[in-house]
Amino acid sequence: MTLTDREPDCETLIVGAGFSGIGAGIALDRAGLRDYVIVEAGDQPGGTWYWNTYPGVAVDIPSFSYQFSFEQSDSWSRTYAPGRELAAYATHCVDKYGLRARIRFRTTVVGADFDEERRLWRVIVDSPAGRAEMTARHLINASGVLTVPKLPDVAGVDSFGGHTMHTARWDHGVDLRGRRIAIIGTGASAVQVIPEIAPIAEHLTVYQRTPIWCFPKADVPLSGAARWLMRLRAGRAAQRLVSQAYVELTFPLAAQYFTVNPMAGRMDAAGRAYLRREVHDPVVREKLTPRYAVGCKRPGFHNTYLSTFNRDNVELVTEPIDKVTGSGVATTDGTLREADVLILATGFQVMGTDNLPTFPLTGPGGRSLAGFWDEHRLQAYEGVSVPGFPNFFTVFGPYGYVGSSYFALIEAQTRHIVRCLTAARARGATLVEVRREANDRYFAEMMSKRHRQIFWQDSCRHANSYYFDKHGDVPLRPASTPEAAWRSRRFPIDDYAFTT
What we know:
- The chain is an alpha/beta fold.
- 29% of the residues lie in helices and 18% in strands.
- The strands form five sheets. Strands 1, 2, 3, 4, 5, 6, 17 and 18 form an eight-stranded mixed sheet that branches. A five-stranded parallel sheet has the order 7-16-8-9-12, covered by helices on one side.
């Protein structure tokens, strides 16, 4: 047997053991495509919920929707599950569906190149054993987008003399009690962590670039009756139906059909009313009021974030940061505020071409995926496949996510991927690639529908939203959750070319 004839190490390699990777593994098993391996950078499964352990971390979609439809938990303690319960749910799914033996933990993908002669992917990984190459016929990127922490573009961040940490890499060894804390950022993570640390800090300074719309959250402990219903099939179905309807109304239908749905336009008034009710000082309230419409960027949901700014030991700073020094944070007005701890609540690299996936990927002819997107804008057929990159699929691709529960996305996209791989097996194909004309048709459809989305209001230019990529596009799918699910079952399989 020659090197060219040698079989790959596995038929399918899945990158990431967060919920996307877990869902992909379960879907492959159910389809009888069991020759796969999952590689995961962390010590345990869970992805976002493994890495993010900051105080107050929780989901902002009701627990009844934030789970697999086929594996609904009866263990949620609240309507919005805290992070530790979601990490436990990930472990439960891995163990129940027998995935643990397929996962290689502490293994980070650092690059992938397509071998045209052998029609497989050569994937370079780093692990405690050192750097190695793995080969796979098909490669599924399930690494997600809430993965790579984004550092602020501020001079001197590395020079701070106290403790520095990012919310996505929380250091639980640092005692925050009685400390002077500076936190940069007011996005979703900050909305959750600020109310938790303010009561124990000597002083908390919040540096805000862009205010966030914040709304109250129906986050309550689940009653005994609700938990009893969770143990019944009919009870779980009813809870999920109500939850799914709420999620669909509050984002996909409001954001993706903005021009024909008046509900989103009313949210600005609701947000301002909530601000007036929660924040006493009119000057602080004005600083916390966004200058863009609701929906331009993802809003926050929290019951005590806004009222935290009523505390005497909390200061909101809106002057731009000039630099970070060894002792604190200096703003452009010449003020230096000293701190003992610096917290970076600056989110993730989400819509960057070098973050989808989180490793450099090179297809046939030496062309990089990042280069393709830089030249042609972010695009992927049904949010899954890119022409010119055979045997490669992604769960969170451009124009795949409609904005509802990530689990709805995972189930739709893994269904799409399984249809492709099953067809390849049936045809004896070693090469699966979306046709250029199919991709172009889909991208044109996305462009033709985006005028009805909420993101194209004039005020959105002031939002500094991660929804927008460097091309000025918002690569979210202008569709509803049911439509995306239906299309994952019905897209023409001949939109792909299968080569034996």
